[in-house]
Amino acid sequence: MTTTVEKTFNIFDILIGTEGDEDFGRKPVIIQGMTGSYGSTHTRLMKAYGTNIPAGVTPGKGGQRFEGTPVYNTMSEAVKATGAQISGIFVPAPFFLKAAIEAIDSGIKLLVAIPEHIPIMDAIKVLEYARKNGAKMIGPNTPGVIVPEVMKVGIMPAQPFKAGTTVVFSRSGTLMYDVSFNLTSKGFGQRLCLGIGGDPINGTNLIEAFDLVRDRADVDSIVVVGEIGGDAEEQLAQYIIRTNFIKPVIAYIAGRAAPKEKRMGHAGAIVYGNYGSAESKVANYSRANVPVAKRPAEVPELLAKKLKK
Asked: How far apart are CA 236 and CA 256, in angstroms?
């Protein structure tokens, strides 16, 4: 019987370690589904960015190599050979549950779940299993996570991001790129950019993401990219007020002009009446003293004003 593990960790620590460590920024990452068309493409891009990928896993292809990187049949073999604690999951949605459980059983502590269309019950099962075993999950349906100019685990392009002290948390993948590009172009580099994921079930929600950075000296501000649907932004605003979150926060909400009761791409972006509406989110952010940009280009303008105060 698996027992609940109370110990938690900061995603920063598991991704890049402690500055001054020998392996700072070089934590090993195993790619599940490395030899598939999607996994292979992004493995190349992640390695080109500097991510340390010493192994991949594709059942039935153990013993092969993908452009010099060994491929294993199972996660237990790959973890034993590399000591990795991070997994990037690029398998098709129907195989996600088995792949994620295998990763956790093998000792993986951070799962970056890229695939979309994961059945809700599968996502819930993985999230609960991760919690019981002291692991964390980013996603599913996430672009991943990037520590600019250090490493990335995901599908985001490299160009929009530059190292700095602002953190970006986003419910939308492409808008994470857009907002980060606008920040970079105005001189606001990023310490970490993390895609919460577009599905109704998030392995790391906005409040948990904010907890990661509230006490970090290397983070001076947060940009949160939301969208209509659900109550994630409302809950975050209450958290900011309740916990007296002191770091400057700027928000952007996608879909403000969308018709109500329409699904706007993500499974989580559905508005019924006022529930999950842009008006509700803007009103809650206003109570938390969080300015809301009307367009991505306005984000760095609002951030500059906030940091001057």
From this structure: 18
In the sheet that 190-195 helps form, which strands lie side by side, from edge to edge?
Answer: 151-154, 144-147, 190-195, 163-170, 221-227, 249-254, 292-293
Residues β-bridged to residue 252: 225, 293
Phi (first) and psi of residue 139, to 5 degrees? 100, -160
The total of structural domains in the chain comes to 2
pTM of the predicted structure, to 2 decimals: 0.91
**Residues 113 and 180 reside in one and the same domain:** no
293: CB partners within 8 A, 6+ apart: 250, 251, 252, 299, 301, 302
**What would the two tokens of residue 56 be?**
């991949």
d(CA 256, CA 87): 35
Alpha-carbon gap, residue 253 to 278, rounded angstroms: 7
Taking only the tens place, the pLDDT of each residue in 35-82 is 999 999 999 999 999 999 999 999 999 999 999 999 999 999 999 999
Tokens representing 220 are 């001076």
Query: How much of the chain, in percent, has pLDDT values that exceed 70?
Result: 87
Q: What is the DSSP letter of 9?
A: -
Q: Which residues are catalytic?
A: 266
With tokens 């953190």, the residue in question is 167
Q: Is residue 67 part of a domain?
A: yes
